Amino acid sequence: MFKNAFILIIVASFGCFLYGIRHIYLEVEDNACRMTYMFGVPQFSQVEFEDNKLYPHYGLYYYYEGKILQNVNNLKLTGAPVIFIPGNAGSYKQVRSLASVALRKGMDNERGIHLDYFTVNFEEQLSALYGGYLENQKKFLHYAILAVRRLYAKKYNVDKSVILIGHSMGGKVAESALQDPEISKYINTVLYISTPIDKPVVYFDSKLDKFYATSTNYLYNKHASHIPNRETNVCTNFQDKIPHRTNESMILDNVLMISMGGGNRDLLVRDGLTISQFSDIHAMTSSIPNVWLSCDHLSIVWCLQLVTVINRFLFGITVIDDYRNVYFSNDKLYRTRAAINYFVKPLNKRKPSEIEFTKSTGDSIWQEDSKIAFRKSFKYGLRTEYNHMMPVSKYKDFKKVYIEIDSFEDFEDDWIYGCAAVANAVNGGITCEQGLPISHYVQNIPSNDRYRSIALLDFQHLINYYPDWSHVLVRLKTTSKATSLKIDAYRKDERRYQVKSPRLFSFKPKVLVNETTLGTIHSEILIEGLEEPFPTLQFKVEPLACANDDYEVNAKICVPWARGYDRHVHRKHDSKDKHIYVNAPFSAPSGYNTTENPITLELYLNPACRYRISYELSVAGTSSKIVQEFYHWLPAHLTAVLFWVLRNQIVKFQNSEKTIFIKPYAGFFQCKSLYIVTACRLLKKMLMPMKFLPITTDATNYSFYVSIIIHGTAIVLSIIAVFAIWTVLTFHGNILYKIALKMTRISSASSEVLLKIMSTLPLSFGALFISISMATCSGIGLLLATIFYFLMISNAYKDYLEDWAKDKAKGIFKTISKKFKERNKKKSDETALVPSNAEVSTNNEDNEEDNQEENDNENDVQNAESVEYFEGLENFAFHIAMLLLLGIMAMLNFGLGIAWIKSHYHGHHLNEHLPDPSLWPSIITLSSLSLLLQAGAPHKSSGYNYVAIVLYMCFCCCILYCQEHIYRLNYLIAAVYLSVALQEVLHYIQRRRSH
């Protein structure tokens, strides 16, 4: 029963994983980015500098537009310099959108401010797959910054700082430039666009790990940091959004660091990786004013809405001197306020002061009203100013008063004031002669192609601070466009709903509000229990009736421990998906109390509609988040499954009397490894407090079912992989053979000779592929070794099938021949009652032949029973498991192989410029495999019991140390190969001594 239950769990885990993949790629929201078009012909002029000779395959370019070719080295540049750094597989031409918009904005700028955009060519290197690139890119960026500064030193000797904009891994290269004191003093601001800053998406090699660790350790002592704790709540305390650990001795504190993430559409760099503890400002594109949408990993560099905001910020921090030289402000406080204004929340740049109304009122309309639900529309605009006065005394009992104006176009203008009313002698009413702007209460939310400008006031708070005020004034200026005013007053607890996240297996929807009252605009939902990044709640705000208005819902999601992750969601009547999904971008700090600091979901509704609000745990959303957050655990769990399978094969191979290991898939149908995963989680909790153990144990404490889903998926993948290999072995063994011929560019005859040599002298296998690994890289050597190892198994399986077919045919022929002779003998007995002497002689010969056949059959049975196990390549189950481990190792070094191929294509050798971090594990693995083939492994030996213990330990290490840092699997696989090879060598020595 337990076995069947585990099988169901494994199948359900794999189904959940597939369902999550489907939801990610098929249910992703539409791309709402507007394309950025060039105003002229894009041109790139290469900057010449002496240090470029050290890295001739890299380049620095200046962007301009026009048909006339220009040489940047002869130009007198006066703009503020910006350097764009592309990321993984990114082109230097991706700067086009940012630079073109800045170029046109500079031409239209009355002050004469303009920017000079430069871009770096890194040959579209896969820096996210191979960390060896990053150090060279960092050094070249060092020389590029100095070269850009030299272009401006020719005129007025202006000391200009530069701004770095890094996309994807380019942002990490930009951050690494801060480690050099000679360069960091010239860096003004760093913008990270969809960059995995504090940790990579996947740790593919040790160079990548070291690069990140070095950068983090350096910045921790040189720049202010922000690490959320149990008290952090960015939803109620704006100061929690700004890094607070600072010190005057931190030499990098003047560098402004701004990070941006793409949101749900970015499937390459998940949300939680785009923020850094050193970022002064963080924002998601879905929360940036005037952007309010999600961008995928590539569109984020050309999305017109975002490109425009970035350039507005850059122009906003730029100043110009008397000599018309443009440079970036060195005042970090000024730059920080500008960043908040453009990326977080528009700020009122004017100092609040009393404003006189009497001189500008004229024929203005003044109206006093104290309704708790008020709505006034001006479909054809306003010819005169409209002033709506809200008496403070009438609203003091209402804790929250929501005020909204629609189609308000200017961030700079104030529209809400506090004032003391006086009697109007002209019409007998009341007016305000002067008022104080309270625009710091104003925020903006998206609405179709416009935005809704809102203010949420606490009148009791206003009375305490401004006792002289009698009214809150809303002023609508004259406009030709349709506009409206909406007011919704309510007590604090009337629209505040507490929600606790349902458990994993709770799928039943729960109704939160059966029907909202007409006129309701604002509601607040407090969500407890979403501490981890994968549980996802879906809220359904269903319109029951609307009065001649389209259905529309706006939502704002705030996660209290995740600064910059405010997310706006806009749903309307024609939206494909009307649900609102709520989850956290990363786990809450240890011990965080989500009851005191819950995730908040604010709903902004249409007051002309009545709604039903319900919620439930989203299976699709939760599955997709598990896939996004933990798919990189699969290599570690798949390797652990293969270690467990190999351990079971060894144990059964040594103890069973009748082998079943002629079947390549033997031993892969198992579920006991789930027990070991559970034990590893318990072991992790025991190891964490021990200081003498490596501190690199994965310290994440996610729910147990995440490990079950990933491990169950790994078990199914191992079964699929072995069946695929078995199918290819049986029916299409020549497919990989042809692939190997194309990769190695050798003829069929030469390859056959090579295979015969490796089969006859297996030590040549290791010598050949170790030589290839050292001459090229370990990725190439491991890939070719995997293919040729498969071909050797394929040839052995083909020989086995031929022998098996011959034996079966021989057995069938003997059976048919025996039956035919028995039938003839029966007929001869019936026809002759008394046999002659000749017949007696013939019968004796037949009896002798029958006895001989029976003896042969008995001997065949005895020989079959005497064979208790298959050795060498005929133990296909053992060698298939070893082949899969070698294949995983080759896949882990895939990025390294691509790096070598690209470097070879561009004419420079990888080994001369870039290190090979997996060379020694590859040498150990290939040498051990060569010894195994030479010794005809596996052999029955008691020493394999110790190998089984090693496999146990390696299994645990996969779960404890390799889920995040998958490059460590190279060392574990090499250790397993070495253990098996040593066991075979010791067995050989012991057997020689016994003889």
What keywords describe this structure?
Jelly Rolls, Rossmann fold, transmembrane, 30 strands, about 20% strand, 6-stranded mixed beta sheet, about 1000 residues, single chain, 4 domains, 8-stranded mixed beta sheet
Care to give the gist of this entry?
The protein has 995 residues and is α+β, with helices and mostly antiparallel strands. 42% of the residues lie in helices and 18% in strands. Mean pLDDT is 84; it is low at 857-868.
How is this structure best described in words?
The protein is of the alpha+beta class and 995 residues long. The protein has four domains: 276 residues, 3-Layer(aba) Sandwich (Rossmann fold), CATH 3.40.50.1820; 136 residues, Jelly Rolls, CATH 2.60.120; 122 residues, Jelly Rolls; 291 residues, no CATH class. It is built from 26 helices and 30 strands. The chain has an eight-stranded mixed sheet with strand order 1-2-4-3-5-6-7-8, sandwiched between helices. Strands 11-17-16-20-14-12 form a six-stranded mixed sheet. A five-stranded antiparallel sheet has the order 13-21-15-19-18. Strand 6, helix 6 and strand 7 form a beta-alpha-beta unit. Helix 19 crosses helix 22. The longest helix has 54 residues. The two termini are 49 Å apart.
